[in-house]
Amino acid sequence: MRMKRILSLVLAAVMLLPAAACSPAEKPLDSETTLPVETTVPDTTAAPETTTEAVTEPAETEPVWDPAWPKKEHADASVTRKLSLNLLSSGDANKEDADKPLVVFNAADPKYQKLHTPEIHKLADVSMKWIYDVTASWTFNVPADLSAYEAYSFWVYAPEGTVGETFYMYFGSENSATDGIDYYGKSFKMQSEGWNFFSGYLGAFSINRTPLGWDKIDKLTLTSTGWSQTNRASTVLYLDNITLHTNAKMVNTTGIALGDAFAFSVDGPRAVYDNETVEISYIDDTSVVFEESGTYWLPLSVFAAILDKNSDYNAASRTLNMTLGGRKYTFVGEKNTVVVDGKSEKLDFTVRVKGDSLFVPHTYAQSLFGYGSLYTDEMGLVILSKEPRNYDLHKELKALLNISYTTLFTRPSGEEVLADMYDNLGGDVHPRIMLTENDFDRLRGYYETDETFKKWVGELDKKYGITSTAYTESPVKWELTDGVRLLSISRKAKNKIIPFCFLYQITGREVFARRAWREVEALVNFKDWHPEHFLDTAEICYPMAIAYDWLYDYLTPEQRAKMEKATLEFGLNPGLDRYEGRTGSWGDNNWTGVCNGGLTAAALAYASALPDACTRVLDGAMRDVEKGMYTYAPDGGYLESPGYWSYGTDYLHVMMSSLDSACGTDYGLYNSPGFAESAYFTAYFETEDGAWGFHDSGSGVSDTNCLSWFGKKSGDPSVNRLRRNSVDNGVKALHVYDLMWYDPKNIVDSVKLNLDSFYTEVGSVSMRSTWENDAIFVGLHAGDNAASHGDLDIGNFVLDAAGRRFLVELGSDYYNLPAYFGASRWNYYRKRAEGQNTLVIGDVSYKKPDQNAKAVGSFTRVENNESSSIAVVDMTPAYDAVTDGKRGVLFTDNRSTVILQDEVHMSSANTVRWGVHTKGRVTINAGGRSAFIQSGTYFLYCEIVSADQSLQFTTADANSYDPAYKNSSGEYSRSGIRRLMIVTPDKVKDFEVAVVFKVVTLDDVAPALGETYQWTPMKDWKLN
User: Fold this and answer.
1) How crowded is the C-beta side of 225, counted as CA atoms within 13 Å?
2) Per DSSP, what are the bridge partners of residue 158?
3) DSSP 743-789
4) What confidence tens digit (pLDDT) does each residue in 909-923 have?
5) Bridge partners, residue 154, by sequence
6) N or C, which end of the chain has less CB nearby within 10 Å?
7) Which pLDDT band, with edges at 50, 70 and 90, does 859 fall under?
8) Cα–chain-centroid distance for residue 509?
9) Could you report the per-residue pLDDT of 419-434, keeping only the tens digit for each?
10) What sign results for the dihedral spanned by CA atoms 827, 830, 832, 834?
11) How far is Cα 67 from Cα 976, in angstroms, rounded to an integer?
């Protein structure tokens, strides 16, 4: 049941009930971010018998509302209403939400007159020119009490060549009791040339030392130095007004000044016009834009609300009236006519009805309203404007995403979420987190009738039954196993509690409930849930929510009270400290999904017992989660790697499925650009030998436990088949999620996917010969060296074949190495270019980055057909000496031969080092122009093709080119890894080399030199 959100109505009451309370790689878990564990990790003991209570069943009729619960108000959809009510940022509906902005820096202030630039300005009449090498820092006096303000917004103009430059902003709040400065701070990075828009929550500013509070601010400082910044002294930026806002909902977050233009999203229930946000229907958010056969059906209500403030709509008669250009128009749903000034005119289409609104084709809207220019993109954005607008999805992705988010996300308050929950469930009903009683009834039916489901329950029973290690071992104990994190303990508890609770619900056997309680009781008695590393806390909040919700009928009031107290003290309150700015916030990476997912599940589960805290947590989570959604856009790629996709996405699935089950809606989160498509991401980046573990990912298979939820949510049976294949063939372990989201009707026999993928923001291409287990798999990376968890890896290349990983990605190192996520990152071999399968150019010192740390590589060509594929990366930004550098892959000969080719031209002569890593046995043939890498009975033939006859293969252990490099204590071993290399004997200005890769067996005749490939410039490459 999808619930209607009515922004203009006030909730009848507020709850007042009293409160009672890693990775596939071989590494410890992350303080910066962490990776998932593929299989569940058991750990258990037995618990005392408890009494049970009757389950509270949902009311069959209209519930009698307890006045302590928030009540969902439903407007009468049949009445005639003014469409101006659909405007969210103006009108009577939102007077109580009015913003009272404060300009804390005025670009037009006369004191900066010498720096004023009238030619470049945005909101003020002038901007302030900030020249880094003239003034590194600026400090401004601001009001002392900023506690009333929730959000910030400002514009900065970045001239050509300043993309990637940064500055740090902090609000000082000096505490005399501490040494050093006390402040709230945040770093800002120029994302694109031209105007960059920045906005967000003040609660997202990190906290340094112990500032006295937002009500005791003494200054605002902007600085281009310190805080690990490496800006160029020659940088020039242009500052516009910096504004604080009392109502975060009112902040213009589009990032593009739309002006006289309308923006919609497919499946979006609202639109953006200039700085206005408009509901398609403030009665019914199932009124969404849709697309059919290339035609976008757009809502008349949005145009009417903006262009005629007196327009109205009658839902009973499906009639919309508006005045345009002095003429009166009447549209009626399911009619192919429009009445203009009393006369009927024929339309070449039928006015469509969806939800509570009327829709017309975009071509008609363009003609009628005079918006001739149309922009659409793969994210589903549809923008109509009077002037031609040629947005660049890559360069303006963040700004376009902000428009998309505004059209897609409902952004409810915590009170609205809980009102929706009680309305959807018909009262205070358990279970409601991820699954409801109806869902469990359906699954119990499968347990009786479906052989696959029955078999899977049996497998789960073996892993967690009374004779299993998981059941018989002791409950968890509070322990920082790596000296830094509680996370391994959090996961150990989670990976037992949830299966135990599920088995209790399906089988009805109380032994599972008793065993779950023992684990819960251990967590309740912890001294805390280690909020210093909030992933630890979030991963406990989630199973504590499941146990409270799914065992509600089993638990005694005393047991529930203990859980409520612990969850409030150890989980919800530390979460509120983050949301409300008393401690630092988490970043915009996988932490966003994990922290918001765990807290949302807890807030929904404990809402009736802990109303105030849960309402405020939901308030924060529904907004904070948005900052982590952009990384899926525009195409489903995940910047941090497949391993981190698994981790962050798993908890977003917890959050969305819990909102769906409890409230009947995920408030638009699932429709975030690229999120649904990301279900295929891991499939494209792994083989049965493991995932392409670039950046800080691991080399094992990706955790795809939540794929069956994607299949259920999307209705795509191919997604379920992807997951089932990996479980059925034993590559991945059965998980409780496979049972939770089981649907025997929503699956197909085989998956048909393209052989290649190109993820634009990740900056990676994958290619394969087939989807069979022995396929040749190739990966080529461009990407952003400064990406979260990124490496210096522009040009990185991997290759699997015959079920073997011939050319390997080393992946992450030990996260507790000194400054691993800071100043020393580029000093560690696995993070440097020399630790990747790419080029190292010039003199090498391990104390300096061997690629530009801020460089962004890009694909200049990606083409493919059934029998061949081409991808070319521009590597020029990665090296100072390179004037034109390209690396390309040609997958040819019916996808049986791989050509890796470099064409690099430099301004001065340098040594060039070509290298790839392998765990195979390397043999270099006479003359050094060819080599074999052996894995089992298979060989990867490697051949140099270059006019430079001095180039030969050599091999060495996987160690730095700099002989002064010494492994740090704790670095992961590289024993057994060899590097196949080509090193120019003399310094060169041009490096043009191709290497041919072909898989052969002992029975095959190895290719002769020059037989497979003749040098061909990349510009002349053609598909077979």
Assistant:
1) 10
2) 194
3) -TTS--S-----S-EEETTTTEEEEES-SSTT--EEEEE--BTTSTT
4) 999 999 999 999 999
5) 198, 242
6) N
7) very high
8) 38
9) 999 999 999 999 999 9
10) positive
11) 68
